[in-house]
Amino acid sequence: MHRPLAIISGPAARTAIAAGCARPLAGGPLAFALVETPAGIEPATALAGDHPLITPRGPWAGFDLSRPVIMGIVNVTPDSFSDGGDHDNAEAAIAHGRRLMAEGADILDIGGESTRPGAAPVPVDVEIARVVPVIRALAAEGAVISIDTRHAAVMRVAVEAGAHIINDVTALTGDPDSLSVAADLGLPLVLMHIKGEPQTMQDAPRYDDVTAEVGDWLAARIEAAVAAGIARATIAVDPGIGFGKNLEHNVDLLARTGALHRLGCPLLIGVSRKRFIAGLSRGEAARDRVAGSIAAALHSLGQGAHILRVHDVAATMQAVAVWQALQSA
Ligand code: 8Y4
């Protein structure tokens, strides 16, 4: 288990690399001076140049990953939009997706099943009926679409409707057909960590070392995917903030999220409006968690995250533009 320590940002990163005091983190723009290994703490310069903490990532899904990629969230669930019928839901979701595209989202993540603890399970045909018209409409307008699903049947029809990326919060463990269907489809994919099932995942989750265990689980899922015929270069990983984790676990995982670069894959982080923000602050409702979401998003970029999954695309893009200008100054 190797963790980058003493992560350096901004102009100092380039200076430290040029001086032979640090190595680029996952290809840059950050650097790291130290690495924690099972044997102790060592200089990063002791690592071989082809170590996965150092090697560049991407391209992934057509993105070169030289700048942060913004994935905007489009829910097609009745509780997120009108109380009207499926047609109203689809129309509202399409309008929302258009707005996120106009705000500059690189990817739209379209989901038709709530994975909130206690949410009623949705039959697969209902999930399909919700997402397909939204994918069709937004893909036809040029959006890059990811399908947020843990069901193989939904993956198949979503891709027929124009989806480009599979985002599975169960890392292809949620359906016995997912590994083979994803391999057959051959699209870029996000493998997210979850502990337990969505319904019960928040019932007293336990870890000895959450960052190490999430990393080991994701490593095993990468190997399962590769064994099923999925190309390694198509896989992005995600620690799954809030999915079978309490406040302390989420904070630990975000603080050390750079450790996941040992997996050698692009890193996606989803913190937007999540409950841990309220837990660290004043118990705010989801709509009042934007500032904390942006703080966590910029922190994630400072740990070398490549892709951010967010509700508030315009606000995040503004924050990222400022962060990036200061990185490359
Ligand atoms: C308010 C609104 C508060 C939404 C919490 C939430 C992730 C994900 C979700 C993630 C990836 C959510 C589908 C949870 N989170 N996919 N999906 N990574 N890859 N909750 O972190 O947004 S749904």
**What's the β-strand tally?**
12
Shape annotation:
globular
What is the architecture of the largest domain at the second tier of CATH?
Alpha-Beta Barrel
Q: How much helical structure, as a percent, in the residues?
A: 25-40%
CATH topology value of the largest domain:
TIM Barrel
How can the largest sheet be summarized? 8 strands, parallel
End-to-end CA span = 33 Å
Describe, in plain words, how this protein is organized in 3D.
This protein is α/β, with parallel strands linked by helices and 329 residues long. It has 2 domains: 1-56, no CATH class; 57-328, Dihydropteroate synthase-like (TIM Barrel, Alpha-Beta Barrel). The chain has 10 helices and 12 strands. The protein has helices spanning 11-18, 86-103, 124-140, 152-161, 178-185, 210-227, 247-255, 275-280, 290-302, 313-327, and strands spanning 3-8, 23-24, 31-37, 40-43, 69-75, 107-111, 145-148, 165-168, 189-192, 235-238, 268-270, 307-310. The protein has an 8-stranded parallel sheet. Strands 1, 2, 3 and 4 form a 4-stranded antiparallel sheet that branches. α3 (124-140) runs parallel beside α4 and α9 runs parallel beside α10 (313-327). The longest helix has 18 residues, at 86-103. The radius of gyration is 19 Å and the shape is globular. The model has no long low-confidence stretch (mean pLDDT 95). Bound molecules: ligand 8Y4. Ligand 8Y4 binds at residues 111, 115, 148, 167, 169, 190, 192, 238, 240-241, 268, 270, 273-274, 286, 309.
